[in-house]
Amino acid sequence: MELENLVAFKSSHEVKQKLSSYGTVKKFEEGSIILNENAYIRAIPIVLKGCIGVMRTDDEGREILLYYINAGESCIMSFLGGLHNDTSKVKAIAEEETEILFVPIDKVNLLIKENPEWLDYIFRLYHKRFEELLEVVNDVAFKKMDERLLNFIKKRCELSKTNTLYITHEHLANELGTARVVVSRLLKQMEEKGFLKLGRNKISLM
Description:
By secondary structure, the chain is α+β, with helices and mostly antiparallel strands. It has helices spanning 13-22, 76-83, 105-114, 116-142, 145-160, 169-176, 180-192; strands spanning 24-28, 33-35, 43-49, 51-57, 63-70, 91-94, 98-104, 164-166, 196-199, 202-205.
């Protein structure tokens, strides 16, 4: 997605011009760490192309996926941390080859003061991320791991617009906050039930 095609600012040529003027575009390979926990946030990311996974890590190093940031979207956690000169509470990783526009914090504050469209963009992002975080809490609290695992695979396939997900059992376990052996056992059971087919580092939905 080019900057000119950002859906959120279709009706605001001024905002797009300012973003293009203020921001710096960087490219990341799949698996690259874009932001680490406890790092100070100097710029707000807007995804132009690709997808970012945002996750939280506990004291023992276990991770759980919170949400994805797709093309045209940004990270509300970065907004909040950057505006309050706080450190990041999450880690962001490129799920595929990703292109990001980084807008410096001081320019973000300027956009908020001068452009209502930008503030509306932030509030809409906040609403969406809040709903996604509620969904994560609901899944962890009320759903069994097999249901969470299958839903995760379906969601990743939907994002990639394919029926095949290329991922290791270890990676799946990390993103769901569980053990690899649990994931492997559940995947085998799902394969036996005809829900999916397993291959080397890949899972195909049936």
